[in-house]
Design brief:
323 residues; alpha/beta; Rossmann fold; 2 domains; six-stranded mixed β-sheet; four-stranded antiparallel β-sheet; 10 helices; globular
Length: 323
């Protein structure tokens, strides 16, 4: 430094602002690259398949994909329908948001219910209180057969769970809808083998390379609206096996348990019987970005009761046709 050094360079606050601007630039460049890859994949699906569909639950990952689809094709021009497999035990905040978002986009929303599969006898519960989550595979395969879908676009990410980390972006399914992890096709650069035989289909995961942090940074940047339960709210919960279980008609208190009202939010949403919130006061996407930076447990590991047992391992479920 000398007498000719501009005054602003002597100001520590100026250096802090420069570092912040540099970080924002790098963050946006990273998100731009992920968005570009996702848009490319969504367009590739539209070009390569005759009857694709986008799995849309109303959750944060599917809403990020939907935002990218809007950018890929334009508003009111998404070239494939949205498909939701409903267990009948989903949070009302999520299904209401799902319906309003689909209507807002003018998209064709197809909903198929596990309860319909139960009525047909293709799904049978071991007992009335059993989670229906794992049985979505049956209803999904029935929907694939009904509409002859040849590609299903899903919002799974590789950072969620070990089995999902094994997935290709274009994941082949045989004529039984099953996944064979040792028989996947190579994916070099952006070259995808999309050839299928009659009765086969692909599961396509455009946000495979995103992390939970990337998703929340993108939601914050793009101002994507989400169901309210993703943000802090008061909820009656009970501690059970290291998780905060919401107290509902489907998940009542057990003998000897004590219910508490806590500030919580959901990191992921699914069937009420197996989805748990985490303690949090994060009221905005920016708040959640900060929380996610400090998280040391994956979102499924911290919030899903059905992933806690070996019998319900994700790899086994995926081999049987799960998302």
């Amino acid at each position: 430094m000398n007498d000719r050094t501009p005054p602003e360079l002597l100001d520590p606050m100026h250096h802090s602002l420069l570092r912040s601007e540099h970080h924002d630039h790098l963050s946006n460049a990273h998100l731009d690259a992920l968005e570009e890859e996702t848009i490319f994949i969504l367009r590739e699906v539209a070009a390569a398949f005759e009857r694709p569909t986008l799995l849309f639950s109303g959750g944060k990952d599917s809403l990020v994909m939907l935002k990218c689809a809007e950018k890929a094709f334009g508003a009111d021009r998404i070239p494939y329908p949205l498909l939701m497999i409903d267990t009948g035990h989903n949070f009302k905040e999520v299904t209401d948001f799902r319906d309003s978002r689909a209507k807002e986009l003018g998209a064709d929303l197809i909903v198929r219910s596990v309860e319909d599969s139960m009525a047909r006898g293709t799904v049978r519960l071991a007992h009335p209180g059993e989670s229906r989550n794992v049985h979505q595979s049956v209803t999904l395969l029935e929907a694939i057969e009904e509409f002859r879908f040849d590609a299903l676009i899903g919002g799974a990410r590789r950072d969620e769970e070990k089995a999902r980390a094994k997935e290709r972006i274009f994941s082949h399914r045989d004529s039984f809808g099953q996944w064979q992890p040792k028989a996947q096709r190579p994916e070099l650069w952006t070259l995808f083998n999309t050839r299928i035989q009659p009765g086969e289909h692909f599961r396509v995961f455009p946000i495979s390379n995103w992390t939970e942090l990337d998703v929340w940074q993108y939601i914050d940047r793009e101002k994507i609206a989400l169901p309210s339960l993703y943000y802090t709210h008061k909820r009656d919960v009970v501690e059970r096996k290291g998780l905060l279980v919401p107290v509902t008609e489907l998940t009542p208190l057990k003998a000897g348990e004590t219910m508490e009202s806590r500030d919580v939010r959901f990191r992921t949403v699914g069937d009420i019987t197996c989805t748990c919130p985490v303690e949090s006061t994060a009221a905005t996407a920016a708040d959640i970005v900060i929380e996610t930076l400090a998280a040391d447990v994956s979102e499924r590991g911290a919030t899903r009761m059905d992933d806690k047992t070996s019998e319900a391992s994700m790899e086994k479920r995926k081999k049987d046709g799960y998302f």
